[in-house]
Amino acid sequence: MPTISFPQMRALALDPVQERIDFFLSAVHELGFGAVMQARNTEEARDQVFFNPAQFIVMGAELKPWPAERFVAAVLEEARTPPAIIVVGNGQIENRRALIEAGASVVLSAPLSRQKLLNAFIAAASKIHMNCAPQAAHRRALRQGLI
Fold it and tell me: Which domains does the chain have, with CATH numbers?
């Protein structure tokens, strides 16, 4: 399994389900990312994105009190440097199209695995760092030694 090593990158875990946050935090640590932050609600997440910019946000699709797509749009408006947003849902996500249209980079369905999360980070990184198709971005990242 390839490893991704962007030590300068930050990830923000945002999900009301603690066991998924714990899984995400351990997976991000294994993947070699730098700082990982955790927010428990929309206001806290918006503050963290504004004051301590994260390149990646992983959030739950069932986030309350807002619909997840509204939160995605709000964070992208608030952030000084727009992050890649990875949305994780429980099984089937009905609002997948709305999330992508709002600006989510990757939408995943549970169950999660570390490989699935790694692939999501690669795809999200390709959107914020390389601005090209995921396959080409993956090849370029390999050539540049990023993964």
Answer: 11-143 (3.40.50.2300)
pTM of model > 0.90? no
Nearest to 4, CA basis, from 88, 124, 93: 124
pLDDT digits (tens, 9 = 90+) for 51-92: 666 677 777 766 666 677 777 787 777 766 677 777 777 656
Q: How far apart are CA 12 and CA 56, in angstroms?
A: 6
Q: Are 104 and 96 in contact (CB under 8 A)?
A: no
Contact between 129 and 81 under an 8 Å Cβ cutoff? The reply is no
Locate 128 and state its tokens: 């914020």
Residue 59: how many other CB atoms lie within 10 Å: 26
